[in-house]
Amino acid sequence: xxxxxxxxxxxxxxxxxxxxxxxxxxxxxxxxxxxxxxxxxxxxxxxxxxxxxxxxxxxxxxxxxxxxxxxxxxxxxxxxxxxxxxxxxxxxxxxxxxxxxxxxxxxxxxxxxxxxxxxxxxxxxxxxxxxxxxxxxxxxxxxxxxxxxxxxxxxxxxxxxxxxxxxxxxxxxxxxxxxxxxxxxxxxxxxxxxxxxxxxxxxxxxxxxxxxxxxxxxxxxxxxxxxxxxxxxxxxxxxxxxxxxxxxxxxxxxxxxxxxxxxxxxxxxxxxxxxxxxxxxxxxxxxxxxxxxxxxxxxxxxxxxxxxxxxxxxxxxxxxxxxxxxx
Length: 327
What we know:
Elements lengths: L10 H8 L1 E5 L3 E6 L5 E8 L2 E4 L12 H17 L5 H7 L11 H7 L18 E8 L10 E7 L5 E6 L5 H16 L5 E4 L3 H4 L1 H9 L3 E4 L9 H21 L6 H12 L12 H6 L14 E5 L8 E5 L10
Parallel strand pairs: 5-8, 8-9
Antiparallel strand pairs: 1-2, 2-3, 3-4, 5-6, 6-7, 10-11
Helix pairs in contact: 8-9
């Protein structure tokens, strides 16, 4: 067929799409509709191959199915000729082309970055059964000379603890303090720690502390941050909130420490869809957080100075907002 887009035809796909029989003889081939028994197409042999004849030779006996498939195939050819563009660009360039990108396997394979990691089906019943952790590096030093922070996220409550660090070598000390805090205040034990494969988590001293306290350490494979996705997404969320509150009041970059600690405090008290619209604070403590004391980050409030007249006020900066105490 001169109008056909390919010189080979899949018999299985043709019979499935057209709902027809494929009848092969020594010197000819015919496609017959299963329901109406009408002849859809026919062909003869040529040099050892079955050659499909033009379906327009017998308009009264043939279905329009072949013509429709040829049209769809032509659309796919134009999609391929133009380098597999997105559907809107294809429609703007060729308005008569009707092609769905989700039907193109080449687009699916060629345009996704990595295969999607399956979600874990493991359910942790108690807080602190699993702790996620990751270290974030700042592009500049804070006014307190901090360059890093480490997060510890509880799997069940999604509550986040944040510790600011001058160097990555302090990660072990931060985890030791966090472990002592959990043991003392919540009468609980950390059972599993999940982190990336960074040297700050795989040092001999860190491994020895985990082994001594019976903590299982789960590390992600190299170049697969998706496996430590909870901590990675939390760092992103923290920085999105921190940048937003800094841009809102035009705070200098050196105050990023105060901004990220304030962001951590606020995120812990904001309802999230992951917890069915409950805040991490409420899941962890079984109490509803209060927000009456919150002020805009970087704003200035006025408080009465004790022992002086009521109309005499002193400006007190709330730079940093409400801070979540680190370890």
